[in-house]
Request: fold
Amino acid sequence: MIKVTVKSGESFDRMLKRFGGHIKSRGLLKAFRNGRYFSQAPTPRKIREAAVKREGYRATAKKRQFLS
Reply:
């Protein structure tokens, strides 16, 4: 749990900005958004399709590297 106390002479907006910085630095917002909806584990077919697509991307990148 993150607690942010208001420093003496600090405005509410500045304190809120510090709070947002703490949230971003710990990656809490990203973790919350990833867990927002339930997603099923990928099936073996989906895993293989993703691997084939990745290999295609790598092959085109390798061709571009040698053509440049």
Q: What stands out?
A: The mean pLDDT is 89. The two ends are 51 Å apart (CA to CA).
